[in-house]
Write a structure and sequence with these properties.
By secondary structure, this protein is α/β, with parallel strands linked by helices. It has helices at residues 47-60, 79-92, 105-109, 113-121, 136-141, 148-160, 175-193, 210-216, 225-238, 265-276; strands at 18-21, 23-24, 43-44, 66-70, 98-102, 124-132, 164-171, 197-202, 245-248, 257-260. The structure holds iron/sulfur cluster.
């Protein structure tokens, strides 16, 4: 059996990937909206354990096309540690077409451009980076631990190393008070990075987090579907990301949107306007999930 510690998360696009934990948890683990790794203390798994999981996967699967390296911040391990993992994957799974991982801004920024390039050459194809918001006040309030500029710099380093970049942001994170600034600054940060993929989720509470407690105790207002649609419209009206694939078709979103920027921007804006006019139904709360 492959060894998994605690709950394991992966981006929707890694649904059919082999997942192996290179690290446990998230090195930051302090974002107020996030419940993903709260029960874990961050650590880098010893190489022997990681290799044993890959050996087991080789015995279990005849063909492995994609591999996702978990947990929340797999790239936080030293470059040489990650390089050894990637060399082992190359040796064991020559058929594997794509290796990806989450990468916090810090995990990218502490590496040199040469190290990132080496990891790409060894097979690391894409990094999933959480921007959450391009607005520094929103980032401060959610305790992201990074400024928008730092996150953009990390994204640009990933791209300069030759890797693809997938960036996630979250509608509703600034509540109504910061909604417009959140939308415009997020559009600006995305436009600077021009990631290959942009995923827009919508804030949703499931398990207890500090932000959920703020909401329950009246300190945080959770935006309704109309307000979220209006915010998303502002974001799309300000974005300039030629060629980026934009998706807001996650179970947390009230209105499904998918298209290639900038070509499909107007069609997506028009869908949001229709939702605001009541011509498209919002996803009901009962069907929303993270
Ligand atoms: S960096 Fe990502 S995984 Fe870590 S606490 Fe923040 S949102 Fe959660």
């Amino acid at each position: 059996m492959i060894h998994y510690e605690g709950r394991v998360f992966r981006p929707p696009s890694e649904a059919y990937s082999l997942i192996v934990q290179v690290t446990i948890g998230c090195s930051h683990n302090k974002c107020t909206f996030c419940d993903m790794y709260k029960e874990k203390r961050f650590r880098v798994r010893p190489l022997e354990e990681v290799k044993a999981d890959f050996d087991e996967a080789r015995r279990m699967y005849r063909r492995v096309d994609r591999i996702f390296l978990a947990d929340g911040d797999a790239l936080m391990c030293r470059a040489e540690h990650m390089a050894e993992v990637l060399r082992y994957i190359k040796k064991l799974f020559p058929e594997c077409e794509r290796v990806t991982s989450y990468g916090s801004p810090k995990s990218v920024l502490v590496k040199t451009p040469e190290e990132l390039k080496m990891l790409h050459e060894l097979g690391l194809e894409m990094i999933y980076l959480g921007l959450e918001s391009g607005n520094d006040e929103v980032l401060r309030r959610i305790n992201k631990g990074e400024t928008a500029d730092e996150i953009v710099r990390a994204g640009l380093m990933v791209k300069e190393a030759g890797m693809k970049l997938s960036v996630t942001c979250i509608a509703g994170l600034g509540s109504t008070e910061l909604s417009e600034a959140h939308a415009i600054d997020t559009a600006r940060a995305l436009s600077r990075m021009k990631p290959e993929y942009i995923g827009l989720l919508t804030l949703l509470f499931e398990l207890e987090t500090p932000l959920m407690r703020d909401w329950q105790e009246g300190r945080f207002y959770l935006m309704n579907p109309v307000e979220i649609a209006a915010e998303t419209l502002i974001l799309l009206e300000h974005i300039d990301c030629e060629g980026s694939i934009f998706r807001a078709n996650h179970a947390s979103n009230y209105v499904n949107l998918a298209g290639t920027l900038n070509r499909d921007r107007e069609a997506m804006c028009s869908r949001l306007r229709q939702a605001l006019d009541g011509k498209i139904k919002f996803r009901s709360e009962a069907f929303r999930a993270r």
